[in-house]
Amino acid sequence: MNSSCLECGATLEISNKVQIGEITDCENCGVALEILSANPLSLCLFEEEEK
Amino acid sequence: MGLSKELSTQLAPFLKKYTVPIFALDWEPPSTIQGFVLTQKQASELQTLLPHYTFKLHIVEKNPPDSFVLGNAEVLSLYTTPTEKKLATQWEKTEPSLRNIWTWQGYTLVQKHEKTLGWVLDSEIVSTPYFPKHSSPSFSLPAFLDEIKRSLDIPYLLGGRSATAVDCSGLIQRALWKTSQYNYPRHSLDQMKKGVRKERGTELPGDLIFARSLQENTTKNILHVAVHIEKNTVIHACRQKGKVVKMSYTEFFERYAYAGTRAISKPALEGDAL
Known about the structure:
The complex is a heterodimer. By secondary structure, chain A is an all-beta fold. Chain A has strands at 2-4, 11-13, 23-25, 32-38, 41-45. The radius of gyration of chain A is 10 Å and the shape is globular. By secondary structure, chain B is α+β, with helices and mostly antiparallel strands. Chain B contains 6 helices and 16 strands. Chain B has helices at 5-17, 40-49, 141-150, 168-180, 188-194, 249-255, and strands at residues 25-28, 32-35, 54-57, 68-71, 75-79, 87-92, 98-104, 107-111, 117-121, 125-128, 196-198, 208-213, 223-230, 233-238, 243-248, 256-263. The two termini of chain B are 33 Å apart. At the A-B interface, β3 of A face α1, α5 and β16 of B.
């Protein structure tokens, strides 16, 4: 399924078998995105905190 | 001070190219950015990305581009800043020489062969005429797995990446370099981005499992990485256990929330080597 990057708007191709909590990234801008829900697909930015 | 969201977006290609954040930016709105930019080439790249900002550079490429150093000891610790003892990574004597970027008040900024940067004490390094030779990495999965298994019981240390201590991503990076001369990224999120996505449940030995901590009082936004060994078993550098351990998936997912599975991508002909 397709979605749009929250940062740059590029098209994202997301697997239909994606899991909630899974992290993916935009190949265009490199930002990390978290899957909030799979159906319907909902994303948020994943901003890793400093260890 | 951290980068604004807008600035982070603009800098994303630069940071992605150089794998890890390599400079500390002191944000002074509206028009100047101060920071330690490492080379003239990188300064030019930044200027291209941020045409509306004026760069106030402290020093640019002070040391000759072919200046290399070695650590005096078996293991050299690299820190994120000269004065703050936060470990960025480690260098081992078995690794190629470090590029000498910049010296400042008794400290030297060095760059490892896989591009990770950090500060070291001048007293802990020595100049060397040797510079890393280009090599072609060849990824050996069996060798990687054997190295991971040999790493059991190595103590955990945030920033660690040596025979004496590792963190979760350091374990992976070190094993890949040691067995295949394959320069994998230093940080877990970068390792995740470099890997090839797989569906949960299709893990094969050597695949990387990414997850976030569920421990109380810890943020969920720190990405952890483990190595799938066999059915229901991972090996990872566990902060809570204080060392590299073998763990069942049952126990692992009591401690961490699943965030993804990645196969280790095959090295490219260039870019993944020295």
